[in-house]
Design a protein that fits this description.
Membrane topology: Peripheral membrane protein
Helix content: 40-55%
Organism: Coffea arabica (Arabian coffee)
Subcellular location: Cytoplasm; Membrane
CATH topology of one domain: I/LWEQ domain
Strand order of the largest sheet: 11-12-13-14-15-16-18-20-21-23-25-27-30-32-33-34
Number of strands: 34
Radius of gyration: 34 Å
Strand content: 5-15%
Number of helices: 41
GO cellular component, one term: membrane
Shape: globular
Structural class: alpha/beta
Family: Belongs to the disease resistance NB-LRR family.
CATH architecture of one domain: Up-down Bundle
């Protein structure tokens, strides 16, 4: 009976594994597989030892018979259910092999997790308790066979390995798995040399007892999740972990004797035996500390150091060190004798993109003199040629990798070889010659030839032609012409909710009160709060407004700074140097006697508000605080105006309206293909807006004729709305082009609710090799297309739009963030370690490629990275940089010699620039915190550097660049950041410009120092292809200057400020490049007559006049026109009247869309001609108290012309 059940489950697991390959490993199918492995583990336990336990547990024959019958009945029920379900699963597999669809994938869930199968779980749980209790009390009376133990352990370990979401017990289950693995490997090791089962009796009895208890506890974590049992379960697992490494004298003696017997044996080892040896050595290293504590140190020569099973502390340290060296020597020997079949646990995402990236690097490397010398004795040219040929073959068959297991295997082998090549090549470049018999260039050439032969065989096979035609209909590629994504959120169904919240904000008590918005994730709490926050009623009602995102992990100082930056557009320099206490007082001071609104978004506990409450004065004028949260209890009850506003789920009509608005904005009628799936869509989304938005992203990238199949597959699941959202997200991810998958998952490398500067994010993507190079576009433009595509698919949220057509900053939703973190780890793309508990327990995988750490400053003292394979290291502090603490990370730099991306911008290093950094020759991206030390000349060693971001912190000043900066020919992005002043700059060496190289790849430079008394033109010509420049112009009082910038023929964006020495009077004439699209000017104090030189630039779209850039009370537009300007901002100017000459048919701003007026205190008059503008959409006014009547006239003129859409926001 048992054997047939095991056979059925094994057959079902084989079919399920094939289905997992077909559907690309969705999480819900892994859960199904996990349930089957748990069933198999239980059947093995029940059939091997259940009968004995039943008989030994009681002397009452009737009770024994009843228990035995009950157990037999359960096994029969399991067998019947499995037999039937295995047949159904096989049928699904056969049909999916021919024509896979997600509808069939969801049938698998219904098949294996149907009601009859799920109903077995409580009874299995009760029997596990019985077996666990019996095994610890009665098992000494039973004979245990090694083969039975091994079969049970293998099944148990597979069930632990397959499931990755244990919730609260995640770390404990992982530790449990490692220790059980050690026990299994130990038994196999000692029995290599004919040690009999009878000699291992006490050990096998011990292993059986802990294995059954481990099975019971893991089953409880998986299928009996109850919050009230959390502490008890944690405690039980911890107790079991302490018992797994045997400490009982009898068991300990058995282990010692078994090791001695195996040591005396002279039996030769076969290939299988060598693998057993390798597994034992690996698990021994993982558990060495616990083994030494238990006294099981037979491999050490220092047996006399063991006294009564306990090591003295002084001996422990010596013994551990000595033993570790010996075991590592053994490990090296074993590795040489039987090399790993798969050395690299390589990323599973964007494999072909990585091969392309590698080929580009190889071609560049072999064409240089340094590369030729390095690879003189290595057949790198042959490797490159073979890889080029293989890549072309993979391009022909890669589309079928989800349809054909053989193609999947070929692709995987090719990608693994590519990662091996990169590892060998990069290691050679840093002086580590790893070319050996186990992994060499010669062996790789042969490996590629074998893979290539298989690929050629498949490409010549006629069976491909039909499949290619069929599969191509279902594949999703990056559109050749990207649609411009909708930057502003589409808000549907929240009108009544918003009106209700606005009413609570603007009416009621004059005392400070809290308005709380609560609801499950994905319902639109933040969207509603943002709609309210930006409404014209709210902006005109409250004098001060601030938006602050809190999240699960927050730091009070950061929150206070975020609030201050909202309520004051220009903060004094000393604010960023203030302590938490001073910042709290500063916030309170600026809010006193003002009617204010503060939004605290994504609050997780009441302590967040309690920590900020003292900064929110009760002015008795109707000030309000909005809290958004998943929980009801995050606000003090006495501060609430009324009960929290519980955000409801969408009605079916609202879900439909949102889907239409996302897919067909501005259109009332939907195409028939969308109408056909309306009912299934609204039922499937279960009123969760986020699911609607993600689904719209999927459908927008597909052919309309495929919509029905996708929606039917998703709508067949009977799950909660959050699970449905996750399933929809999984499908959305599956349908991303490969080159976008890595970019999307990269959001999981950062802290939760992290706001990404898009320029910096794009530089990271480029440095990581995620961006495919083209001849027609720069890498940054291609990466920007990737970002826009992710936005159009509703996977990325725009948090700060650019002035026109673009994204300044972005973020992702909490649910999407957690998906990225989990998926990126599962795909081996990167791993994020959060908080101290994860960091302290973190074990570095040997070939982890990207490591991202988000923790508190004091925890970095414990940071130990011993993996030389790391290519990306990102370090984030909770609460920003700690001024009082610096770190010495030199030992890390000496280990991670292959790193390409290194972000230390939140880590204060020791005072001098680390020399070890200069040895990281593969670096492409470096962000570092400046501490007053100069950039050394040896920076030129980083010849691959593409992005250098220098952030001033404790020492604020300009930064002089060494002469060798001109040798960094690959530099694309050079930036100096300083929160105190944007006038701190890079000073380029200009003594020998005639003999210096150009930085032809430089795309972004911020900030550059320019002195017109020197040859500016000669310096600027060193950056012939620059497109974005921020610069400071240094002038002397009384001089006349002519500044020519027109030599920058590619320049599109210029931010130019002026610093004048010795006074404020000078003559200045500037010639701008005709191609320029965006211009920002500050501190020039030019007369308004100079506007004519700016206004007529033919490609001008954005103009920002800030901080006394122009002076004079009257700006009368006469000659100048602004034919293409879409965005205009005037900020901190002394202008009183802004007028326009009344020429007939004169339109000064024929394309103006947005006008921003800020801190122009004296401004009274705005050109009335704006009332005739048909393109003007919005006027934002802040701190301009005297221009209200002029704005009203413009609004009235607009209405009289039939333009009713103009929004005027005054705050």
């Amino acid at each position: 009976m048992a054997s047939s059940s095991i056979t059925c489950i094994s057959s079902a697991l084989d079919d399920l594994q094939s289905l997992l390959n077909i559907f690309h490993y969705p999480e819900f199918l892994l859960s199904v597989k996990n349930w089957l492995t748990f069933l198999r583990t239980f059947i093995l336990c029940a059939t091997k030892w259940g009968k004995d336990y039943v008989h030994l547990a009681s002397d009452d024959k009737e009770e024994v018979d009843n228990h035995h019958a009950s157990l037999e009945a359960l096994i029969v029920r399991i067998e019947d259910a499995i037999s039937k379900r295995a047949q159904e699963l096989h049928s699904i597999y056969l049909s999916s092999s021919e024509n896979p669809s997600y509808n069939q994938a969801f049938k698998i869930v219904d098949c294996i997790e149907g009601s009859d199968m799920v109903s077995l779980r409580p009874e299995i749980y009760r029997w596990y308790f019985f077996f666990s209790d019996c095994s610890s009390k009665l098992s000494s009376n039973l004979i245990v066979r090694k083969d039975d133990i091994m079969e049970f352990m293998d099944s148990l370990l597979e069930s632990l390995e397959d499931f990755h979401d244990w919730g609260f017990a995640d770390g404990l289950i992982k530790a449990l798995e490692e220790k059980l693995e050690f026990l299994k490997n130990f038994i196999r090791f000692v029995t290599l040399h004919d040690v009999e089962d009878t000699q291992l009796g006490p050990l096998l009895t011990h292993v059986k007892a802990v294995a059954i208890k481990a099975a019971r506890l893991s089953y409880q974590c998986k299928f009996e999740k109850k919050s009230e049992l959390q502490d008890e379960t944690d405690k039980s697992i911890l107790e079991l972990l302490l018992k797994i490494i045997p400490v009982e004298p009898q068991v300990h003696e058995t282990c010692v004797q078994a090791l001695i017997a195996s040591k005396l044996s002279r039996k030769s080892l076969g290939d299988t035996d060598e693998q057993i040896l390798r597994d034992f050595v690996d698990s021994l290293l993982c558990n060495l500390g616990d083994i030494l504590k238990s006294g099981l140190a037979i491999l050490s020569p220092s047996l006399n150091a063991i006294k009564d099973g306990v090591l003295l502390s002084q001996d422990m340290e010596l013994l551990s060190s000595d033993l570790l060296k010996k075991i590592q020597l053994i490990e090296t020997t074993v590795a040489q004798r039987c090399p790993e079949p798969s050395l690299f646990d390589y990323p599973k995402t964007n494999g072909l993109g990585f091969i392309d990236f590698l080929l580009e690097n190889l071609m560049e490397l072999t064409s240089t003199e340094a590369g030729s010398i390095t690879f003189m004795n290595h057949p790198i040219q042959a490797v490159q040629e073979e890889l080029v040929c293989l890549r072309s073959l993979l391009g022909r068959i890669v589309e079928l990798r989800s349809e054909d297991e053989e193609l999947q295997a070929i692709r995987d082998c090719a990608i693994e070889v590519a990662y091996k090549i990169e590892f060998l090549v990069d290691s050679l470049m840093v002086g580590d010659d790893l070319d050996s018999s186990s992994m060499s260039f010669h062996s790789i050439v042969e490996e590629i030839k074998i893979i290539k032969a298989k690929a050629l065989q498949i490409c010549d096979n006629d069976r491909l032609h039909g499949k290619v035609k069929k599969v191509s209909k279902r594949l999703f590629h990056m559109p050749t012409q990207l649609n411009k994504p909708i930057i502003n959120d589409v808000v549907v169904g929240l009108e009544f909710e918003a009106a209700s919240i606005i009413n609570r904000l603007t009416r009621g008590s004059l005392q400070l009160q809290i308005v709380s918005i609560v609801g499950m994730p994905g319902l639109g709490k933040t969207t509603l709060a943002r709609k309210v926050y930006n409404s014209s009623t709210v902006t005109s009602y409250f004098y001060k407004r601030a938006w602050c995102t809190v999240s699960q992990v927050y730091h009070k100082r950061n929150l206070l700074l975020e609030i201050l930056s909202c309520i004051e557009s220009k903060l004094p320099c000393n604010v960023f140097e203030m302590s938490k206490e001073d910042l709290a007082h500063e916030v309170k001071r600026r809010l006193l006697r003002n009617k204010y609104l503060i939004v605290l978004d994504d609050v997780w506990d009441i302590e967040a508000f309690n920590g900020l409450e003292a900064s929110f004065p009760d002015n008795g004028n109707g000030s309000r605080v909005i809290l958004t949260s998943r929980r009801q209890d995050v606000a003090p009850q006495d501060k609430l105006d009324q009960e929290p506003h519980s955000l409801r789920q969408f009605t079916p009509d609202e879900s439909w309206d949102l889907l239409k608005a996302k897919l067909y904005p501005g259109q009332d009628l939907a195409p028939p293909e969308l109408c056909e799936i309306r009912q299934k869509v609204v039922e499937m989304c279960q009123g969760l807006p986020l699911t609607v938005v993600i689904l719209a992203g999927i459908l927008s990238s597909m052919d309309r004729h495929d919509w029905k199949e996708v929606v039917e597959g998703l709508s067949s699941r009977n799950v909660s709305s959050t699970e449905q959202c996750t399933a929809t997200l999984e499908l959305s991810y599956k349908h991303l082009p490969d080159n976008l998958k890595a970019c999307f998952l990269y959001f999981g490398a950062f802290p939760e609710d992290y706001e990404h500067n898009t320029k910096r994010l794009i530089s990271l993507w480029v440095a990581e090799g995620f961006v495919q190079k083209t001849q027609l576009k720069r890498s940054e433009d291609v990466a920007n297309d990737y970002l826009m595509e992710l936005i159009s698919r509703s996977l990325v949220i725009v948090s700060k739009p650019r002035s026109i057509d673009g994204v300044k900053a972005c973020r992702i939703h909490d649910l999407l963030y957690e998906f990225c973190v989990t998926k990126a780890k599962g795909e081996k793309l990167l791993q994020l370690v959060r908080r101290y508990d994860e960091l302290s327990a973190f074990t570095m995988p040997c070939y982890l490629r990207r490591l991202c750490i988000d923790s508190k400053p004091e925890h970095f003292d414990n940071l130990r990275l011993f993996s030389s394979a790391i290519r990306c290291l990102l370090l984030f502090h909770h609460g920003g940089v700690d001024r009082e603490r610096s770190f010495d990370l030199r030992f890390i730099f000496s280990i991670i010699k292959l790193v390409k991306v290194l972000d230390l911008s939140q880590i204060q290093l020791r005072p001098t620039f680390p020399r070890e950094l200069e040895l990281l020759v593969h670096l492409r991206y470096l962000a570092i915190l400046g501490n007053g030390s100069p950039i050394p000349a040896s920076i030129c060693n980083l010849s691959n550097l593409e992005t250098l971001i220098w952030e001033n912190f404790s020492f604020h000043s300009s930064v002089s660049l060494p002469d060798t900066i001109w040798n960094l020919k690959k530099l694309r992005h050079l930036q100096l950041k300083d929160k105190i002043s944007k006038n701190y700059h890079f000073s380029f060496p200009d003594d020998n410009l005639d003999n210096s190289s150009q930085l032809c790849d430089l795309d972004i430079l911020s900030c550059l120092s320019l002195n017109p008394l020197k040859n500016i033109n000669k310096l600027l010509r060193k950056f012939p292809n620059i497109r974005k420049l921020r610069s400071s112009l240094y002038l002397n009082h009384g001089y006349e200057y002519h500044v020519a910038i027109e030599c920058l023929s590619q320049l599109e964006s210029l931010d130019l400020s002026c610093v004048v020495y010795g006074g404020d009077r000078y003559q200045l004439d500037i010639q701008f490049p005709l191609i320029i699209k965006k211009l920002t000017l500050s501190y020039f104090r030019l007369p308004w007559s100079k506007m004519s030189a700016i206004g007529n630039l033919p490609n001008f779209e954005v103009l920002k006049l800030l901080d006394r850039s122009f002076e004079g009370e009257i700006w009368e537009m006469e000659v100048e026109k602004f034919p293409k300007v879409k965005f205009l901002k005037l900020d901190s100017l002394d202008i009183v009247k802004w007028t326009a000459s009344e020429y007939e048919d004169q339109d000064y701003f024929p394309r103006l869309q947005k006008l921003v007026l800020e801190s122009c205190d004296a401004l009274q008059e705005i050109p009335s001609c704006l009332g005739n503008s048909s393109t003007l959409e919005i006027i934002e006014v802040s701190k301009c108290p005297n221009c209200t009547s002029s704005l009203e006239e413009i609004q009235e003129e607009q209405r009289s012309n039939g333009y009713t859409e103009l929004m005027i926001l005054i705050s």
